[in-house]
Amino acid sequence: MKVFFAKYKRKFRQAFRYGNSEIFHREGFIFRLNKDGQNFYSEAAPLLGHSRESLKDVEAYLTKESASGFLDGESDFASIRFASDRIQNQAPFSGIRSNALLKSSELGELFEEYELLAQEGYQTFKIKIYPENLSLILEFLKNISGGRNKFRLDANGSLQESHWKHFLKIFPDLRPNLIDYIEEPLADWNQKILREIPVPLAMDESFFKEKDRLSALPVSVLIAKPMTLGSLEDVKKFCQATSLEVVFTSCLETEVGKRNLLSFLSELNARFDSGLNTGDLFDQNFMGDFSFYSEIPKINPQEALWLASLSWKEML
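The chain above was modelled as a monomer; its predicted structure follows.
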């Protein structure tokens, strides 16, 4: 049994924005376990602004750790514990639903994108909202009538109090139960206006900073990225420690990490539509996105070539 690792860097089609930051590519490490003539893969990819460890931390870990130490999964770094846990997973898969990410920046295109994805079976839709697109998104939502589809709005802390005052004026025009939740509405969770917003509020990247006073904040939903939390047991403990609803999302992993996440969520029996479909953000996307994953997609020839092109090193 041998363990290998390789660093990767994958470009996005265009800059991916969250909050006031932009990233242009994704970096991380792919692990390969060769066991009984078969290869098993996992990924460790800390995400800036979400993970407590950095890519340099993981790189330093890999210069010192042995294969047996990696497989033991005792690292201080959540992404390493996640990768160790998943590379040894052989559990059966039970199927997972995903939300869709709406990306269009023009109203007509947004309606076309939404209608197409709804026809593909999606029931939950995520939209990134910023000061410059808020009016567009609200106009779009005002024109959604009938049906049971829901929308998750993610501000990544980029909006101001004035934006939410505008939202409150528009809110009566929206279909009841249209908005599933609003994620990271403001950078500061102490703002009084948050208690006036009549839909559930979700916490994502600010969790590690605010976790000790969650009960005092107007939070109903926690966004959990397993890559930032660790092993399956780590995430189970995380879920057991809160009475809030937990929705799982990706950390913008590659196809390897997406498979890891699918198997992870299946074992957790994830109750809510998860945020899985970010593959289209990459310049090269080797795996399709689906509203429902009845099985974990296998490595296709294009992805196999990409994996073979990486510079692999053996962990001793």
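The mean pLDDT is 94.
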